[in-house]
Amino acid sequence: MAEREPRGLTLTFTEAELDVVIAALSRLAREADWDEEFDDAAGTLAATMVDRIASELPAAPAGPAPRARKGDGPHHGTIRKAIHTETKLALSYVDRKGAESRRIIWPLELGFAGAGEMIGAWCESRRDFRHFRLDRIVTLEDTGERYPQRRQILLAQLKAGEMEQGF
Known about the structure:
Shape: globular
CATH architecture of the largest domain: Roll
Radius of gyration: 17 Å
Order of helices and strands: HHHHEEEEEH
CATH topology of the largest domain: SH3 type barrels
Distance between the termini: 29 Å
Number of strands: 5
Helix content: 25-40%
CATH class of the largest domain: Mainly Beta
Oligomer: single chain
Number of helices: 5
């Protein structure tokens, strides 16, 4: 392990910059070669930054990261904005069997699972937490309607359910 020399850095990020830091650390968390360094960096950031980033940093490495793509897809900006403003999204979605449905979701996180990008969300139709693959979204729009619970509370419930299911 590298010697640690404390540095008196003050970290101030915009919401967009925090998204980048969280996304980068989430991807690094999946790289097996970075286990120890990742834990050190995530711990340092969690100890020195605002509650938001401390609660959203990934907990541990979880398999290889998917290869980066050139640029975001057509829905990333809308999804990120809805996550930050805690507003509902209306989407048309094609399931793995090819059936299309319309859903109202409360987006909580944007990340990777398996080989694709996913939205972790509360689904009003199913009255449960669900994951939606971005490549299966046909249409997406922000309803402008806030969801009734705070995102951090819902995100903690989503994460607890993922742990029970072995995600």
